[in-house]
């Protein structure tokens, strides 16, 4: 998935993976990813996506806020450094708190890659 693409709806396969607990369900709050994601929408996240692959430019991810570990964020990966740090950015720049505010984040903060919209 890359920047600009739409997020697919949950397929039967994704639903099956969620039932097997290989996908996590996450509810979007806030407007930082509008118009792609609206507050209240639910998405499926692959928590093992980066075990064997590095984060890629354009991936939509759920990440732990680097300064507030109790806060989770949904953002695009806008850039990736060789040292494993990512620049996270929201879709709606006026409503987003992202790497423009808190800087680059370690890939350890990534909780998973968003795979689909749960509908």
Which characteristics define this entry?
119 residues, globular, 7-stranded antiparallel beta sheet, 32% strand, mainly beta
Write a short abstract of this structure.
It is built from two helices and seven strands.
Largest sheet properties: 7 strands, antiparallel
What separation lies between the terminal Cα atoms?
19 Å
- Residue windows where pLDDT falls under 50 for at least 5 positions: none
Order of neighbouring strands in the sheet with most strands: 1-2-7-3-4-5-6
How many DSSP E strands? 7
Q: Which term fits the overall shape?
A: globular
Description:
With 119 residues, the protein is mainly β. The protein is 10% helix and 32% strand. It contains two helices and seven strands. A seven-stranded antiparallel sheet has the order 1-2-7-3-4-5-6. The longest helix has 8 residues. The protein is globular. 29% of the residues are buried. The model has no long low-confidence stretch (mean pLDDT 93).
């Amino acid at each position: 998935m890359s920047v600009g693409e739409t997020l697919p709806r949950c397929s039967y396969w994704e639903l099956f993976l969620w039932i097997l607990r290989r996908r996590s369900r996450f509810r979007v709050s806030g407007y930082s990813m509008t118009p792609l994601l609206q507050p209240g929408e639910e998405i499926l996240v692959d928590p093992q996506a980066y075990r064997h692959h590095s984060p890629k430019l354009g991936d939509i991810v759920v990440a732990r806020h680097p300064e507030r570990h109790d806060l989770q964020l949904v953002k695009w990966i806008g850039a990736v450094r060789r040292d494993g740090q990512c620049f996270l950015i929201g879709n709606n720049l006026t409503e987003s708190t992202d790497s423009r505010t808190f800087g680059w984040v370690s890939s350890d903060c990534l909780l998973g890659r968003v795979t689909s919209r749960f509908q």
